[in-house]
Each structure stands twice: as C-alpha cells, then as structure tokens.
Amino acid sequence: MVGGGLLRFARNDSRNELSLRGAKRRRNPHPVSLRHAALFGSFFLLLTGCAMPGETVPPSACLLPTQKPMLVAELFFGRNVPGRAPVSEAEWADFVSRVITPNFPDGFTVFDGAGQWRDPQSGAIAREPPKILLAAAYPRPDLKDRIAATIEAYRARYPQKSVGVLTRWECGAF
Question: I need a surface site. Which of 4, 56, 115, 133 has the fewest CB within 10 A?
C-alpha cells in the first residue's frame, strides 16, 4: 500500500507500456506485449502446476520403484487446557488408542515439541509443549475425513481454539 491506497496499474495501449495510475509516466525501454505476458504467465503456471495444493505426486516422479505417492500430515496438538492442568501423558495415550490409531491404522509417529504461538486477538505469546503427529498415508477417499475427525475429537475432548495441521504430497514406501 502506498499513501493509504492500493497501487493500481493502467495500460497505455498507444505506447505499449504499464504505468502507475497517477504517477509520472515514462516510456518503457523494454515494451512487453500482452501476448508475451500471456505466454510467460502460461509457462509459469505450467511450472508451478506440478506442486499445486490438492494434486498428488505422479507415480513417475517417485525416485525408487517401491515408492508411491502418499499424503504426509503433521498435526500439532497443544496440551495447555484453559482452567485445568495440561493434557497428561496418560490422557494423551488414551487419545492415541481411541482416536489416532483407528484413524491412522497403517501407522504414525508421535513426538514431543516445544512451541509457541501468538494469540490473534490479544497479541500475547503463548508457549506450550505440543504433541506432534506425523502420518504418511496412501491417498484414499476418506483420508481428509479421518484427519478432520482426529482434529475435531481433540478439540472436543480438550477445549482448544485449533489444532495445527500441515499436509504435503511426498513419495514413500513402507
């Protein structure tokens, strides 16, 4: 933002240049036609299209012959609970056996972390020792539902504003 307003670009077709609206105009020594810009944009989209969210890794991209495309999900479970002691190891073990294991029957890894986050309303920094779930799963139609069910079960059991989640496509073999 400049001067409290958004920058706006205007095209001057008679001179084949882009300029800032309201700014002093000067001739562009390297004019770019719309066709060149469209070609560059299309090329850029083709390059980035391979890693667009929601797309799987093509099997041909996997390095080893035993690897297949898998979704890797990392979930961050805060253990501080308002108005009570943090989630204990026994409570966590119960949650793992009752919720995580049924939702990720092929396997997962859990490890302890040391994290912090900023409360968006107050701006205060909160620190807590999260449990981090790392699960790699072959894509199945119900995978997103199982991830969502795990998050919602934790939020319902231990009142949390959120459970952090990261997902990415990788090649894997087990």
Answer: 4
CA atoms of 118 and 132, how far apart (whole Å): 18
For tokens 């805060």, the residue is 78
Evaluate whether 80 touches 174 at the Cβ level (below 8 Å).
Answer: no
Question: Phi, psi (5° rounding) for residue 5?
Answer: -125, 165
3-state secondary structure 103-157: HCCCCCEEEECCEEEECCCCCCEEEECCEEEEEEECCCCCHHHHHHHHHHHHHHH
Whole-structure pTM value? 0.65
- pLDDT (tens place) for every residue of the chain, 174 residues total: 334 433 333 334 444 433 334 434 445 444 444 444 333 343 333 333 333 344 567 767 888 999 999 999 999 999 998 889 999 999 999 999 999 999 999 999 999 999 888 888 899 998 989 999 999 998 899 999 999 999 999 999 998 878 999 999 999 888
If phi > 0 it is left, if psi is from -120 to 50 it is alpha, else beta; for residue 133 that is beta
> Which residues have C-beta within 8 Å of that of residue 91, sequence separation ≥ 6?
158
Residue 127 main-chain phi, psi, to 5 deg: -115, 140
Cα-trace Rg, the chain: 24
